[in-house]
Design goal:
40% of the residues lie in helices and 25% in strands. It folds into two domains: 120 residues, Nucleotidyltransferase, domain 5, CATH 3.30.420.40; 200 residues, 3-Layer(aba) Sandwich (Hexokinase, domain 1), CATH 3.40.367. The chain starts with a strand and ends with a helix. The protein contains 13 helices and 14 strands.
Length: 332
Amino acid sequence: MLNIILAGDAGATKTELALCRVGNGKISIMHSEKFSSRNYPSLDVIIKEYLSKQNISVDSACIGAPGPKIKGKIISTNLPWILDEKKLSRDLKIKNFKLLNDLEALACSIEYIEKKDLTTLHKGKVTKTKSNIAVIAPGTGLGQAALIYDHHIKKYHIVPTEGGHTDFAPDNDLEYGLYKFLKKRYGHVSWERVVSGMGIVNIFDYLESTRKYKTGIELKERFRNEDKASVISSEAKTGKNGICNAVMNIFVSALGRQTANMVMNFKATGGVYLGGSIPIENVSLMKSKIFLSSFLNKGRLSYLSEMTPVYIINDRYSAVKGAAYFADTEPE
């Protein structure tokens, strides 16, 4: 029997909802729509609008959102929403309503991702023996999760984390200057302050403060009318803007280190999967020596990162599909 599930990814920038048909271990997306999260006071308003447009009711729903889930509630990171499973279930009249950490939802999709939906950054050493897997996703923020393989029951256990909020560790004089700049700005400097969309802006602001780069009137004008991180990223792709090139090089180097940190933290030699909007939009830079040399440079344990495959997830529906898988397989 085929079930229809409402699945979604409620991010700080956008919320994507989809009606998914589940059957025979496969998920097909019947319809999806994006909403600008900051234009809505709460998630339930978005869901009501979406279901009303589709003229459909559902019995099961699962939504991934940034932030730790505690006692059925998520205080959404970088967004003024408080999500409550029981309240959402009651208000929306959806019998089985589940919330997941957004990276937990993405991690739920990993075992089902097809090779065609992956870009390989590092081949590593793929073996038939299953090992732990890490997932890291730089977007508006920095999400992280792990899949820990249990050899006794031959199953992965998904572990959501808040590793993006651990302390950023500068690796050179330039990054130490960045750290001091951000310490003054925020008080606490996490990896998310560097390896995310906000991180791209933070790095730019720091480099601009050093007065070693020319910003230019045209760039400042674009900042007034467009998303600043997106402008910096697109300018770096041209290779003609010195400060934007430097920003993205620092960003990718830091991402390489934190990706390798995930390997060390979870002994994730089964692979690291990069989600989020930034890696897929900057594939050429991700394939450069900057990322890989940073990823492989782990001192005495470099052989662990050397043997670990690294992939970019190309399927933008992966987190939504992961939420649908969870709703279909977990009991009410």
